[in-house]
Amino acid sequence: MATEPGFIELSEDELRGVAGFASASARRVLPLFEAGAPADARAREAVEAAEVFAAGGRRTAELRRRAWAAHHAAREAAAREGEAAVVDAARAASHAAAAAYLHPRASAHQVKHVLGAAAHAARAEELAVGEVGNVGAEALERARAEAPPAVVAVLGRLPVAPPGGGRVGAFIRELDAALRR
After folding, report:
1. Cα 169 from Cα 152, distance rounded (Å)
2. Which terms are listed as keywords in the entry (predicted)?
3. Looking at the domain assignment, is residue 1 inside a domain?
4. Closest CA to 127 of 137, 136, 115
5. Looking at the DSSP assignment, which residues form a beta bridge with residue 7?
6. Which of 25, 46, 53, 164 could form a cystine bridge with 70, CB 3.0-4.6 A?
7. CB 121 within 8 A of CB 88
């Protein structure tokens, strides 16, 4: 089946593969979020909803709502002093739940949706230890090694990751380049 110019084909299996990859990345940093916001279940609910979709569940309004809820949890954590790792952990959860809604646009922006959870998780891990050592690089290497074929296939149909985005943007570009090799 041909697609319109500027669009790519995305199968449901590919969306599930991207969501599974994203939810596994976000799950690793859930303890960071929960340590900083122990009474807030929004990040965990977003990751769990993404896992349900990845395992064969339906894309529902509830899944989208949980993605937005985790996004709001990140914004609330950002308003508090000294919670940078908590913010990125919540952003990873939000990206995980939103991965089911990846658009079939052939735009560099979509790469951020494919790899955002892994990049935010790497940044959360890095921030949690005070940016010492190679924690971010190690997290990206783990993500590269664990990326399923669906992630690589989808990235292969998209332009390379865009510039900008600070440290997380750099992580996205680094992971994108590694997965395209």
Report:
1. 18
2. Exonuclease, Hydrolase, Nuclease
3. no
4. 136
5. 105
6. 46
7. yes
Asked if the structure places residue 5 within a domain, the reply is no
Please give the DSSP secondary-structure letter assigned to residue 83: -
In this structure, the chain runs to a length of: 181
- Rounded Cα distance, 111 and 173, in Å: 9
Q: What is the pLDDT of residue 81?
A: 85
Please give the residue range of the domain that contains residue 79.
12-180
Structural domain includes residue 3: no
Closest CA to 155 of 112, 118, 95, 121: 112
Secondary structure of residue 85 in the 3-state scheme: helix
CA 22 – CA 51 distance, rounded (Å): 9
Q: Encoding tokens for residue 116?
A: 């955002």
- Single-letter residue type at 97: A
Q: For residue 22, give Cα distances in angstroms to 47, 81, 119, 130, 161.
A: 9, 27, 10, 24, 17
Tell me the average pLDDT across 104-108.
Answer: 93
Residue 6 in any domain: the answer is no
pLDDT (tens digit per residue) in 19-59: 999 999 999 999 999 999 999 999 999 999 999 999 999 99
